[in-house]
Amino acid sequence: MGARSSATRPRALGRAAGLGLGAAALLTLLSGCSLEDVGSKFGHFGWPGPGVSLQAHKMYDLWIASVIAALVVGIGVWGLIFWCVIRYRKRGDELPVQTRFNMPMEVLYTVTPVLIVAVLFYYTAIVQTDVDKLSKNPDQIVQITAFKWNWEFDYRDGMGTEAKTVTSTVGSSDVIPILVVPTHEKIRFEETSKDVIHSFWVPELLFKRDVMPGNVRNVFEVTVDKEGRYVGRCAELCGTYHAFMNFEMVAVTSENFKKFLAAKTTGGKTTQEALVEIGEDPYSTKTQPFDTRRGTHSWNQGGETVAAGK
């Protein structure tokens, strides 16, 4: 019996080593690509995508790396399960050797999960700290004011409640509010609500933050690195017309952003006129006003007059 046990041990170790080599080969194969390349090949593993800000990229990388680690662990676990099923299947009526415990194995399946959780916790804490990090001198400060059931975006000349508003964009039932932001600049958002709890959410930022009423001001920063138009929503159930509380974020170059602010401040133009000034569509293109049925009205959207409430 002892000879048999000693003979099977090398084979068991060999199979375990094979699983380890397979996992190592998978990691080596994946290491040749960036996490974004790997994620795009597999549908981002359920994540919305790499995002459009530096903070979003860090969260995306954490997600993809965590999924890859889970896949490696899963392959190893399933491999061991099937190996045990095949290796120790019933071969007769003889009762196999009964083992009370296996100390190396017990240490392995106790220490390994602890190490995995510790590593995941470590990198999660790092990414969360980076996402919540605030700079001393952001490039732009925008105050987000939520109210039932729309948005106001105030471009400020400084931080805190003592700062003054340079210019504003206010949404209505007829016109989707446009939040214009520059790319490659640190944008500080300071949130406040006039009534109930709302939530500022742009899916492409892979981030959302509750907008609190009263003296609570949630503050966060993003650095958008890709131009484009992105739909924004309220992600907190806030009342009857919560589903209609949308906006559009327009990311432009720093030069065009300066032109946009100048057109609104010194030029006295509306948000729509200022958008035309920098070559952008004056109205939202990714979303449109919803029919709230709060009365008969119409709006001009993309050059067409649309009636609502009928």
Automatic annotation (TrEMBL):
It holds the Pfam family COX2_TM. SUPFAM superfamilies: Cupredoxins, Cytochrome c oxidase subunit II-like, transmembrane region. Its EC number is 7.1.1.9. Residues 137-263 form the Cytochrome oxidase subunit II copper A binding domain. It is found in: Cell membrane; Membrane. Residues 283-310 are annotated as: Disordered. Gene3D superfamilies: 1.10.287.90, Cupredoxins - blue copper proteins. It is a multi-pass membrane protein. Its cofactor is Cu cation. It catalyses: 4 Fe(II)-[cytochrome c] + O2 + 8 H(+)(in) = 4 Fe(III)-[cytochrome c] + 2 H2O + 4 H(+)(out). GO terms for cellular component: plasma membrane. It comes from the Bacteria. InterPro entries: CcO_II, CcO_II-like_C, Copper_CuA, Cupredoxin, Cyt_c_oxidase_su2, Cyt_c_oxidase_su2_TM_dom, Cyt_c_oxidase_su2_TM_sf. The keyword Signal does not apply. Keywords: Copper, Electron transport, Membrane, Metal-binding, Respiratory chain, Translocase, Transmembrane, Transmembrane helix, Transport. Binds a copper A center. One of its GO terms (molecular function) is cytochrome-c oxidase activity. GO terms for biological process: ATP synthesis coupled electron transport. The chain crosses the membrane at residues 62-86, 107-126. Belongs to the cytochrome c oxidase subunit 2 family. Subunits I and II form the functional core of the enzyme complex. Electrons originating in cytochrome c are transferred via heme a and Cu(A) to the binuclear center formed by heme a3 and Cu(B). This is Cytochrome c oxidase subunit 2.
